[in-house]
Amino acid sequence: MNKVVKNVEEALAGIEDNMTLMVGGFGLCGIPENSIAQLVKMGTKGLTCISNNAGVDDFGLGLLLQKKQVKKMISSYVGENEEFERQMLSGELEVDLIPQGSLAERCRAGGAGIPMFFTPAGYGTEVAEGKEVRVFNGKPHILESALTADFAIVKAWKGDTEGNLIYKATARNFNPMMAMAGKITIAEVEELVPAGDLDPNFIHTPGIFVQRIFQGEKFEKRIEQRTVRKR
């Protein structure tokens, strides 16, 4: 089945105000740059964004925060974004902070059809408030719920016309499980190839999870903090 759409505008058709979006990436690595730029252009508001982080002030999801398009962030690491901090402390932005491993597993569980699971992460902290606690092997665990989204937007290194995806390096951290958990999953890729060109042994996300795929026009691939050795 050919799942290719012409461009980012066609890919994001149907995203409306007050929807929940999963947005792949780890820091600024593996983020769907073209799709985020299009969301800013669309002006869609009241979004709940599930993402490991919120980008930086002038890139990634930080662009949506600047335009006040996000009402709630469900995230793990948000330390690089001053506008995020300002909105959170002022009460403009609702925030649900989740341990990084729990966030990944909640997305994976959503894609696997597992409604809830127990984890020791977060026990004894604010993360556990209001959640059921059970003891397994002498250790307390808290009950966490799966996460799903109206749309999941991911970025891959390579993809084929049937939606099969290969991620590169750190981009593989959150994109694969988020691709599983969206009612509609959109993939933007650096290289789009014909069906059959990808080695099945190296596919990270099977095309069954992807409904729309397009080739991005350009990827800036910023680095949050560039650190180099002295020569």
TrEMBL record:
Matches recorded under InterPro entries: 3-oxoacid_CoA-transf_A, CoA_trans_fam_I, CoA_transf_BS, NagB/RpiA_transferase-like
Organism expressing this protein natively: Fluviicola chungangensis
Example of a GO MF term: CoA-transferase activity
Keyword Aminoacyl-tRNA synthetase: no
Family: Belongs to the 3-oxoacid CoA-transferase subunit A family.
Highest taxon, organism lineage: Bacteria
Alphabetized UniProt keyword annotations: Transferase
PROSITE patterns tied to this protein: COA_TRANSF_1
Protein name according to UniProt: CoA transferase subunit A
Coiled coil: none
Key word Transferase present: yes
